Amino acid sequence: MATAVGNASTTGAVMDGKHDSVGDEATIATRRSIPMRVLDEYEFRDKFEETRVVSTHGSKPSMVLVVGKARKLEGDGEDGDPRELLGRALVPRETPPHALKLVDVNDWTIRYGEDEPEIWLVTPRAWYKLLDPSPRYEKYATVMLRRARFTNAVVKALMKNWNMGLDEGLDRILSVPVVKHDVPMAIKTPSKAARLLGDTTAEAQKQAALNGLSEEQGNEPEFCAYTHADIVGDGFFIVSQLDSLLKAKALLPPSDGDEESSPIFITELQTWTSEKLQFSIAPKMSRLERDRARRERLRVEKLAEDGIKNEPRDPRLEPPPPASHILPDYAHIGPALQTELLTLWDFAQVFAQALQIPQCPLERFAKAFFGTEPGAAEAALLRDFMVSCLRLVEGRIDSIDHETAKVTPSCARWWDAPILGIHDVEELDWQARAHHYILEFQSSINDRMRVPAMEAGTRLEQGEAVETLTPVQRVALAVALSSSALESESMRFYFTEVFDHARERRKAGEFHAKPPTLVTEVPKPAEAKEKDNSLKHDGTSDVEMDEFMEDEPAKPLSLTELRREQLMQFRRGAVDRAVLSRGKPVAVDEQGRRYFALGGLNNAGRLFVQTAPPGWHEDEEAPAVEDNSDKQPMAGPPVDDIPFTVEAMRNPTNSRDVSGLVEYASRWGVYKPGSELDALSSWCNPAYDNERYITKLHRLISYSIDGVECDSVELDEKTRLERIENLCASMSTDGYSNLDDVALTSCNDRTLTLKLLHAIKFVLQSAPFWRTGDMRWIDRFLKVSAYIEGLLSATDPSLIDICKILPGVESVCANAGLMDEATWPEVKPTWLAQIRFHVLGRRTEAELAGTASTTDVPENSIPGMYDISTAPELLEPLGPLTVHRAANLVNQFLRFLAQDSNRMSQASFKRYTGLNHGAAAINTGDVVALIRRGLSKTYARYIDKKSRPRTWIDVNTLRVVERCVVVGAAYRGTEIAPKSQHAEDRPPCTWLMLQLLDGPESSLFPSTRRQSAEGTAAPEVKDTRRLVVAPLIVGDIADYVLPWSKYNEDKTWQVGQRIMMQFEGIDAEDESRGIIQIDGNFYYLGRVRKTRSSPDKWETVMIVFDSDPEDHMWVSPWEIIEAPEKYHDPVHEGPGLVDVEKSLSAEDMLQIAKCKAVSRRLGWPKGESKKEFDDLRAKIFGIDPPRAPIFCGVPMNLHRVFIESMHLGGYEHVTRRKLWKTVARTLGRDLTSQTSASFAMRKAYERCLYPMETSLTSDDMFGQLGLTVDSDANIDQFPGSTPGANSDDDDYNDDSEYPVLDNEGDKPRDDENEMLDDSMEVDTAKEKSAHADDYKMSDDDFDEDADSDEGESDSDFAPGRKPRQ
């Protein structure tokens, strides 16, 4: 025996480098306590990316982990002497193997000298002998196995003949059979094999490897043979292994040999390998020289071509085609104001996510700023833009919660929409803040817009609406606020983040700044190629796990669809290109006109052209302006060719627009896809680099419409332009179109007051009631909450009442530690003074003099009224109380509230999760059902016992189901998570404060609450409020808090019923995966597999989703709804009673003949055409055919049963002749101990195959299959359809006379435990290998005596409740 041990610390590769002996006594003493085991079905994977498989011969041991199925050894394999254990056969224990994952692999070693080499893994806790790799990993272990066998053959030969020569040794290696899945080099790459050897040809090498067989037979390894070329590739490895064995004295000569001598074969093999490798290196070197010379020649030619291109050429004399006006409806507006508007629109579309405003086309944007009669949509646009700029200036990161801010809003919100956060308060008082910032930052506003911006701020402060401002004031106001927003830290951080991300994507080649080259043909589908196991330069060969899976071939795209996908992918990079370009033009023509792709994702294929104003060029007559020497280079819109000055304004030669602004700026036009872009592309010179962008964009858009596959195919001009217009319309979104039918007058004071009140409620409910055990704080929290609920239910809530509750809200937040303790105490007195002025009015002279007492505050008054009554007096009176002033009071308080980006409102929670049920549908004041099991499971998984306040009710004292009322609801983004979950994977959650409605003495479920013994007093209740805090985690644990009315619904689900269930995070419909969209919501389709009873009805329905029919999930009855009728299973009629005494008629003969023909078509008797059978079955039964039942312990082969039954004449004839046991025997199972095989077979056929028989023997389907029969057939023409004298269906009982009943006597017996069990799932070998990465145990957890997990609910071990896709 010889053993080579790889030293990972010095070699870094598998079985290559220095090796140590295992024979010294010290080593044996240290390893005696390390057990030995066997590892079967193993796989090597990357330690840092477990889904990626690595080859066994090219990775460091410290960089891999190994998975497989391990078993212990019989006898003293745990603590025996390794030398003694290796000297005898290793017998694994007769116990089921355990799935194992070895993370710490120190080294691996190969044992030589036996019939087959043995590969061992060395870990800190055990040695593992590798048996067989997993089926899908076999082809990735071939190199290691081949090298080990080559070395083992040499070792065995040297142990017999120490002085073996080179030829004899090579013959011994060539006698090694080909490893499974390995392909000899002479067959795979014969030319390479010939180059290695140098004295042969590729054909000769191929014939030597084939052993005279054909190429078809050569595909099987057992028919092939290795050649000398394979030995050359592994020669150095063999030499290295032999040297290591000699140094370790693990390989010794026979007893009569000299131990100090080295076999001559090692030296000869090393010399021979080096000589052969020289033959392959020399052609490679010459090839590199030829490639280097070719590249140099191409470089010289390209330089010559570039020199020709760069030579000056005559400019084109014809003028470019005219561009259309960017805003034809507002042509009376001067170019300077239009330039400012164009800049604002581009800013709003490119940075829509940072601004958190919906996108809109340029026409909508112009109507909002230039229109004389703006509607609700335009008023909302103006509000959103101004408020978003102010939010960036103020830098409050929690105005919009962290999760909502990740996605750009798709549609606009009106005043009656549910609140999303503190941002809604900012929408109510933005006018005063805008005026303040304009005055503070007026020096940074450009000269042209400073004066109208200050005028706009003044009018807003006086209470005027923004839509009543003049066009120039609206634009100036937006310019002033956007200028400040661009200089803010928030925008700088966002810009840097997008810029860095775009730059990385550009370096990675994921997007390009210019339009892509148009594809000219549909790429052919990639042919299946077997992975080459030859080593790379670094000796590695990594394979992704997905390559093991066999995906269904996707429908190939047409050429037009490919081009359209190119266009859409180019469009998706619009924001990145805009950020990287920093306002630079995308093209410049030879006449100096510059072209811009403005609008981000809303560009819609348009090119905006910037033209110099009159007098810009030297040969034109410039307008009379005093100073024309300060012209700026056109760096991007907006461009003022002459700086704005007072002298320029007074010059009468300069034009003025209706607003009175001096208009002397660049002129803008636009080329829209269609005839305008066609003309421009024809005029451009594609050889001119600066114009190539235009021609490539034109081709990309023009050839992305249906009906244009190549240049030779043309549509009529009208149809082509219509299709281009529709395509570009699909690339433009208008997020404000949903407000077109909303009246501007629908926004009244009551709507705004309710909006403000809901925002205050949101702030209060966000206070962390789930963390505190202070009951006095909870009392105040509940009292303020109840008062707010009363105001919300009032017919006409008063602004005075809102002011009264503000100190109470402030006190709740202050006592929770949410206020800024450094600055808020200084501001609070002034804030309370303003509230006192609006609530109680100014103090009387007597009160100011101190001769009269302040207003008395009742004991049961609103929390905070005492603070209002004792507040100081304002020096100056305030104006009348309006919604805007009330919102400003709220905002003053919110500015000092601790920022919390995880704070979410109910509306933002619904928007983020996509759910409209469960926690997202529960409101304060609702009566709900609380299920104890769900609460206990949530506490156990998420809430540590030490962190639970003592005031919380003990879960064990609750009923199985409690009736509660919701008194508090806080929605959180990512706050809590189990210990094993990463922070970025935390799901959103909802904290509910529930008050139990049923006291301890009453009981809706008498048997479920601990009752006091008769005659003894009930235990004292600590908290009379009886509050329960319940966290609801999205997508993890089933809903255990739901409306009481919904819980009491009598909803019974039947096995097999089609259902659908809503999940979070789904935003696209895909019926192929069972995802449908109904009323804007997305659902997973599935069916009920099993039901069970439970006192609380929680998780009593087992469902299987269409997206993953092999997996199941336990859900509650209220979590699922019935699927629409079109997704129900087709209804198939079952067979009727069969008359066994009936004589066969001509129709019966024809039916038998059809069954015979169908059976032959589907592969009888050899069992072929199974794929056609599966396709027909899926077509007949729909999206989810009945699963194959368990028959004799294994899944029934439905294909075999069907063709055998059809060959015997079909269902009726087999039943009439009692041939079901004959059909059962064709499955090859032992039926001697089965007492109801015939009955089970017939029932399985009726459920799974009879509808298929009925369909395939129908005239229409029979004709579609191309089958014909003889209409005059008789029973004598059908041998095998008639049984012998005695029927073998001994246990057959006709349902009409002797039905076989189960123990209950109400239904035919199904033999669930033995014959027919639909609920059992047996994984095939392919399914097991497909889930080989789901290993749960590590080396530390290996224990064959571990407790079983039986009895646990499936949802206990699933961190997420979402079906596989």
TrEMBL record:
Q: Which GO terms describe its molecular function?
A: DNA binding
From the Swiss-Prot or TrEMBL record, state where the protein is found: Nucleus
**By its UniProt entry, which Gene3D superfamilies does this protein fall under?**
ARID DNA-binding domain
| Biased composition, class Basic and acidic residues, residue ranges | 304-317, 1323-1339
Signal peptide bounds: none
Q: Which organism is it from?
A: Ostreococcus tauri (Marine green alga)
| Chain intervals with Polar residues compositional bias | 1-12
Q: Which residues form the ARID domain?
A: 1160-1257
Protein name according to UniProt: DNA (Cytosine-5)-methyltransferase 1, replication foci domain
Which residues lie in Acidic residues bias regions? 1287-1297, 1311-1321, 1340-1355
Write the record's keywords in alphabetical order, separated by commas.
Nucleus
Q: Provide the primary localization.
A: nucleus
Chain intervals for the UniProt region annotation (Disordered): 1-20, 304-323, 617-636, 1273-1365
Which Gene Ontology terms of cellular component type are present? nucleus
Xref: InterPro entries: ARID_dom, ARID_dom_sf, Cytosine_MeTrfase1_RFD
